[in-house]
């Protein structure tokens, strides 16, 4: 289990995340929803060791620490908001960077596995990442993260800039990863998308968790229906 307890994140004098606690169990899809600026990305960046934070983050009962490379080695990998690909590098080179902690032979094996899972990436292997469509870039970002064979995948705003058709395809990808046994923490402003995939969801406002429950339970909450589902 990946557990976050009493997490605080500051940017100077600004408190972005305050006393936040949540957990993701083995082979679970958990959603974190909220408005822009609510603290969702800060929460993921804190788990990944990308920003300073206080509180406790543990994996299987042992502290996760803040060394990003060690966090990846232990099986926690983030797909960043906006994909954060190396735009001037090819699809293949981006995948190779996803395996920077691995031996060369293993990198080649895992690249082949990603080409099988995402056939379009094989067709685009020598194309620069910056020339891909938004949907293709999202596939590459996920494939690059999968190079590390994560146990826990943190996905930040994957629907951003995607067409409705690609959003549907993305939901199929996330479900396939879940069926492979990967636990997923899904951060997204598209609440309906999260509720269609998650077993449990948390609602964050102004850096604090305000609600938690199953999607079915949260859909019955008037606050969620009005603020996040437009009902």
CATH architecture level-2 label of the largest domain: 3-Layer(aba) Sandwich
Number of domains: 2
Give the strand line-up of the largest sheet: 6-7-8-3-9-10
Strand content: 25-35%
Please give the largest β-sheet.
6 strands, mixed
Share of helix among residues? 25-40%
* Category by helix and strand content: alpha/beta
**CATH class wording of the largest domain:** Alpha Beta
Q: Report the strand count.
A: 10
Looking at CATH, the homologous superfamily of the largest domain is P-loop containing nucleotide triphosphate hydrolases
Q: Rg from C-alpha positions?
A: 17 Å
What is the fold-level CATH name, i.e. the topology of the largest domain?
Answer: Rossmann fold
Distance between the termini: 34 Å
| Spans where pLDDT lies below 50 across 5 or more residues | none
Order of helices and strands: EEEHEEHEHHHHEHEHEEHH
**What form results from the Cα inertia axes?**
globular
Tally of helical segments: 10
3D architecture notes:
By secondary structure, the protein is an alpha/beta fold. It has two domains: 152 residues, Rossmann fold; 64 residues, no CATH class. Helices cover 38% and strands 26% of the residues. The protein has a six-stranded mixed β-sheet, with helices on both faces. A four-stranded antiparallel β-sheet has the order 2-1-4-5, covered by helices on one side. Helix 7 links the parallel strand 7 and strand 8. Helix 3 packs parallel to helix 6. The longest helix is centred in the C-terminal third of the chain and has 16 residues. The model has no long low-confidence stretch (mean pLDDT 94).
């Amino acid at each position: 289990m990946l557990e976050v307890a009493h997490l605080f994140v500051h940017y100077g004098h600004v408190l972005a995340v305050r006393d936040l606690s949540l957990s993701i169990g083995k082979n679970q899809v958990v959603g974190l929803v909220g408005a822009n600026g609510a603290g969702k990305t800060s929460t993921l960046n804190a788990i990944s060791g990308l920003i300073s934070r206080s509180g406790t983050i543990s994996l299987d009962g042992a502290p996760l620490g803040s060394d990003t490379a060690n966090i990846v080695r232990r099986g926690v990998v983030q797909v960043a908001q906006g994909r954060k690909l190396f735009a001037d590098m090819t699809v293949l080179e981006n995948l190779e960077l996803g395996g920077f902690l691995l031996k060369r032979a293993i990198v080649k094996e895992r690249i082949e596995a990603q080409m099988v899972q995402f056939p379009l990436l094989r067709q685009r292997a020598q194309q620069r990442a910056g020339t891909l469509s938004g949907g293709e870039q999202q596939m590459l970002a996920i494939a690059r993260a999968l190079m590390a064979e994560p146990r826990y995948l943190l996905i930040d705003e994957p629907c951003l800039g995607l067409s409705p058709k690609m959003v549907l395809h993305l939901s199929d990808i996330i479900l396939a990863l879940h069926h492979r046994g990967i636990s997923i923490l899904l951060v997204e402003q598209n609440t309906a998308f999260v509720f269609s995939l998650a077993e449990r969801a948390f609602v964050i406002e102004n850096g604090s968790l305000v609600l938690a429950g199953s999607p079915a339970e949260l859909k019955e909450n008037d606050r969620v229906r009005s603020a996040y589902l437009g009902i």
